[in-house]
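User: Can you recover a sequence for this backbone? Please restate the input before giving your answer.

Assistant: Of course. Working from this structure:
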């Protein structure tokens, strides 16, 4: 299968309001369709526990003050208050866990969308966005990034499995960064015909380096660590790791692209 770029969509991208776009939120919801339902349940139970805590607090205070209107002995009122408080704390924890998970999912999806807007120059000289390749479903970009020596070594290793990788739609994207993790002079783009399905060069490498820095930071890697990222044909990150890309494993695991 040959990598193809989709035709650009008419018009510019719509302005995004808020921290996350509607598209990002919808994708996060699709990946975890029951999260909203769970949040509703935890919120409802938390509201019930809040009301119960308020009532139990009044009953406990009344029992402690030996008020004539006290309906429960102090021990029973205190036990009821403890149960309600424990329930409230549990619901708050569960709700916040869902919120944290949702935000982490949207941050990850947001980074993937930023990646889709980055540009590549194919060996033919044509410049395309990563998303344009993803929309066709015919390419699986594999980003190999690091300092020059690391990237050159990874590229050289990839040549050994090139035929199998090309059959799986793999498009190698070498990204060279310097000792500060900033964009360096990139490798040669390769032969216009022989490498059309095999190599692509990052355009505006500084933007690529900034995206990579955020990706590294999210997993606690140093700015200069050699890393690789394998993308699915639909643009999601399939796998990633530190060091050289496992070309032989990718060639064995990836299914062919029709």
């Amino acid at each position: 299968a040959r990598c193809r770029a989709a035709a650009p969509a008419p018009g510019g991208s719509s302005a995004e309001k808020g921290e996350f776009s509607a598209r990002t939120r919808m994708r996060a919801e699709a990946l975890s369709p029951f999260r909203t339902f769970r949040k509703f349940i935890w919120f409802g139970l938390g509201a019930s526990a809040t009301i119960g805590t308020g009532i139990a607090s009044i009953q406990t205070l009344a029992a402690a003050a030996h008020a004539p209107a006290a309906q429960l002995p102090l021990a029973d009122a205190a036990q009821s208050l403890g149960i309600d408080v424990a329930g409230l704390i549990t619901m708050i924890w569960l709700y916040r866990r869902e919120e944290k998970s949702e935000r982490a999912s949207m941050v990850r999806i947001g980074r993937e969308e930023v990646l889709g807007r980055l540009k590549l120059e194919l060996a033919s000289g044509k410049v395309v966005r990563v998303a344009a390749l993803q929309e066709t479903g015919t390419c699986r970009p594999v980003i190999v990034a690091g300092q020059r020596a690391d990237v050159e070594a990874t590229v050289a290793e990839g040549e050994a499995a090139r035929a199998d990788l090309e059959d799986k739609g793999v498009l190698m994207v070498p990204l060279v960064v310097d000792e500060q993790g900033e964009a360096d002079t990139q490798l040669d783009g390769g032969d216009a015909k022989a490498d059309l399905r095999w190599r692509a060069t990052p355009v505006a490498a500084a933007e690529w380096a900034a995206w990579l820095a955020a990706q590294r930071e999210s997993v606690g890697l140093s700015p200069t660590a050699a890393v690789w990222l394998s993308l699915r044909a639909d643009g999601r990150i399939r796998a990633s790791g530190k060091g050289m890309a496992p070309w032989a494993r990718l060639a064995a695991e990836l299914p062919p692209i029709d």
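That completes the design. The chain has two domains: 22-114, 119-253.
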